[in-house]
Amino acid sequence: MGRDEIAVVGILGIVFLLALAVVLYVGDADYGDATFRARPGTERERSLPFTSERDLTSRQDPEDVLPRRLEVREADRLQEQTVEIREHEPLEPSEQVIARALSIVEPGAAERMVEEILRVMRADPGNPELYNTLGYLQLQLGPEQLEAAMTAFTDAMEAADGVRQTHRAALEGARKLTNAGQYEKALALAEEALTDEAPLHAERLQLHLLKARVYKELDDADAVESAYRGALDAADAHEGRLDPELEKVYRQACLHLSRWYREHGRGDEAEAVMDSMNARVR
Fold it and tell me: Phi, psi (5° rounding) for residue 73?
């Protein structure tokens, strides 16, 4: 074999080894963030990628999808605030001041923001969000401002346009009171909003869930159950299908009540709640 032929054979050998290395490397690749695991019941070392161990479970327990709390503290719930930060257009003055008020952390800032809120309210006197934000700031100023905060939350409900907006304003005020530890005041605001016989909407069910949360804090087991039942009864009395928003809150109420029953050794009632939910929202 001549020198040229030996060189060609050598080059082909190198190419073959490189190709084999690439095949082996690609075969072991993790395709992004997905990890290869064997499917249960097989002996294969690799199968289709699963993104987490939970994907291997055939059915999640309902408790896995429950949030740790119905609500979160005000400082952690800026993503839930009613101000919508629009990408391509400037915020209105009221939206700007609400966004700043809900994000303050330094001591003494609440008092300065109260003055700014009051200034903006003179130009936008019918904005329920401004009243609720004022109430929130007044809660930060201490117990001596509690009644002023309650007045602001009540004014927010009165400024709301329509029953649903009234319930939304009450829900926001009651959440702020609950996060401040003013449980009785939060219940009073929720009860005031629930006195009417308005058409069913998500905020109405959420008010019942908020009451259940507060009664848990007060360690009133009978009232907790009654609050959850209030949400379920309101949904069951609704004729026709629940809209997606209502269905989401209804599911949440059923899951929380079912868990509460199990925690109190009432497994049969927990199962009955889940059966009722599955029959209603197939």
Answer: -65, 155
Please choose, from the candidates 253, 255, 251, 252, the residue with its C-alpha nearest in 3D space to the C-alpha of residue 270.
255
Is residue 250 within 8 A of residue 208, CB to CB? The reply is: no
Mean pLDDT of 180-197: 91
Residue 72's identity, in one-letter code, is V
Q: How many CB atoms lie within 10 A of CB 145?
A: 18
- Whether this model's pTM surpasses 0.85: no
pLDDT of residue 256: 97
Residues 130, 206, single domain; the answer is no
User: Which residue has tokens 């020198």?
Assistant: 3
Q: How many angstroms separate the Cα of 193 from the Cα of each of 8, 61, 131, 256, 266?
A: 88, 34, 16, 22, 31
CA dihedral (115, 166, 177, 194) in degrees, to 10, reads 160
CATH number at residue 193: 1.25.40
In a domain? residue 162:
yes
Q: What are the angstrom distances between the C-alpha of 204 and each of 12, 87, 157, 193?
A: 75, 31, 14, 9
- CB-based contact 36:30 (threshold 8 Å): yes
